[in-house]
Amino acid sequence: MKFKLNKFPILGGVLLTAVLLFFRVPVSILLDKLLVSPLFAYFEGGAWADLFFIIILLIVSGWLAKEQSLIFICRGFALGILFYLFQKANNYWDFNKLVLLPMFAYWDLVALSGMVTIPLFFLFEHLDQSLSPSETKVGFIEDDPVILYENDHFKRKIAATEIASLILRTNNKKSFAIGILGQYGSGKTSFLNLINLALVDKNVLPISFDPWSVANPDMIRREFFDLLADKVATIDMKMSSLVYSYGRKLAGIDGRSQSWFKWFGFFRRSDSAQSSAEYAQINEMLKATGRKVIITIDDLDRLYAPEIIEVLKLIRNTANFFNVVYLVGYDKGYVQSAIGTLNGNAKNYLDKIFQLEIPLPKYEKDDLLVGLQGSLKKMLSEEHYYVFENTIIPNGFRNRYEKAYVGILRQNRDVVRFLNSFKIAYNLIGKEVDFQCLLLLELIKFRFPDIYELIYSQSDKFLFERSFLSTHEQFYSPFLVKQEDVKNKTEDVTVFKTYLEKLEFGDEEVSILDGLFRSLFNGSEYKRPEQKNSISYPLYFEIYFRYRLSNYDLSNKEYQQAKTLGGMQEFMSQCANVGLHKELMVRFLQEDITKDRRHFEQVLIWVFSFGRTFVEKEGMFRFDYEGFLTKISNYHNYISDSLYKKDKVVYGNFINDLFSNALPPFLFENELIFRLKEKSSEFVLSKEKLTNHQYSYFTRMAESGHGLSKDTLWLFWGARKYYNEGAQDDNEWQFEDSMITKMKVYLATKDSKEFLKFSINRALRDRSLCSIYPQVMEMFDDPTEYRELVRDNPELAEGIKIEYLEFFDKLALKNFKGVVEMEFQTEIQKMDD
């Protein structure tokens, strides 16, 4: 078995146990002479001494828990408790007892403090997380390279360790240069750090040189040797001085004269270290030390071409020393291109500089997703993270043949940059819009900002608004066209996809973008988007791009809070005051009320309550009655069976209570009843019961201060009935008998001005040609009965009375058939719209 001391002190524990078991007495005698007798033989305990001792132990335990790693604490505790148990069982010593706690010895408290350190560690860790929010929660995420093994999320430690092992076993007579290849942001710096972590050895001198921080190419050589001289000073001051002098001499050569000499071929190797005695001396001194010098040069691909050439000269020429290893990170394509601007043979140039080039080890297919997932877990609410983990990951990130969203994020730096961009949008509107839509749209914005702008600015090219009878059902859906695939089969594709193909995007990019687009706008003829704050709904589309609510936007956050916290009445009032009554009613009608009786009844109560406000502001005929009827009509007993345990009576009682609790002017409820009666006779309330409610509304209005007002007349008109079921012809209806009887009473006792207005039927093309609606005349057995009610009404103004009777008599001469010409001069001259 191979023991790994860096994992757990198994071997140390075994050796300590063996020593204590077999050499217990000699060890005790040794400790007694070295420690116990000199320190504790004359110790005098007491209350103050006990208290001071306890405080000291608590401070030490707290410091260990706060400053040391859990591994260190556990190792120390495991070995310490082992030593404590053996010595406690040792008859060689008597342990002093505390005065304050006589059942404990001082030695017991030392062991107890070690036990307390572990729970203290977790307590401090919890407090740090709760009291000091992490940077991920409060600010942007830094693109920090890996500096510890535990942060190696891409599992590159194994390769880095093997490279380091081979470096340590290589005894090179000249510098050995290793290139670590990778694109920008792919993790080269982290991989170099992992190699250096594995190179921690007493015989290794690590040096990190950053040529990017040097002001100009001419200074790179000087800065490098100054740094090298400073580092080797820890080994040999004489060698440090020599390196410094050597570097200054090389840097002192005038660059311009160098160039002139090179043109004439006289100074081709003027900066060659091989011609320098100092170079040879430095080389021998480095060899004599037995130390391996590891020089890390990162971000070579950040430099300009002359700077790159200067660094490469250092590696292969002026600093080509014994037992020196260069670890250089760069994007090979960029470096070759830069060299090509100065040297025509760029393709093979790097082969002369680096003995070994190692492409960055590829990460596993889920490594980027794991990094994204870990950061989002800290950033998102529990509800949104659940959606990400259980919906977005399996359907988008792991379903490579469909959407493959993971293709948006190509490297770890992409993950960090996306998270920082997404955090802005999420913090601003994360609680207002649908989380899944926001995440997908932000993925598009991150990788394809031009396409993101295109979706917003030219949405009418790619989307159309599906028209339904009910406004709350309208949503954006992708335009589709027929297209032949490679097998000559016709399929429906989005216009968005065809547009991308014309822009010459690659097949993979088109697939990713089209998958994201289809997921954003996933409604179809047979399926509406489930989340009502989805980008597909017109109420919320703009918010996704604006990152804020305007004065015309309904806050989804406040709406949900009102739903859950019982503040909907107050929210209704707030929306009505700021002109958001239409938007709020749309949200009510969008609610899925088919699964839970409590929610079903709650939404219906809201609609009935807010319907009055809506009608007051928008008029009686602007409300979406048809949409609401689909929610309350008990087609095939669907509602009563699913929500009321097949008890139609209970459902009917609930609806009856809603109508009974209506408030003046009853316009919303009255019109709703008219639509219910018109629609079908199969409802949980009979037509008779519904008409009784209308009768109640009419009489309560008429007998209150409203009298025969316009609103009261609308109630009377809304109580009409058709001769035939489903008939809607203007001439195939009549007023309810009970309402007629009551109206005759009111015509005799109340101001009937509005009724007289209401009774006049004007021709559409010539408003001076008038008649009386036949349904009004049908209210009376004899026309003279109606004339007498008008003539004898004490509340009716005399001028109105005279004018209307003149009109009446003209029609009587025609037996109330056809029209007569009449120019009204009093208040009944026109019917209000």
From TrEMBL:
Keyword Transmembrane: yes
Signal peptide as annotated in the record: none
Keyword set, alphabetical order: Membrane, Transmembrane, Transmembrane helix
Taxonomic superkingdom: Bacteria
Listed InterPro entries: KAP_P-loop (IPR011646), P-loop_NTPase (IPR027417)
Annotated transmembrane regions: 6-27, 39-64, 98-124
Domain KAP NTPase span(s) in chain numbering: 160-428
Protein name: KAP family P-loop domain-containing protein
Organism ancestry: Bacteria, Pseudomonadati, Bacteroidota, Cytophagia, Cytophagales
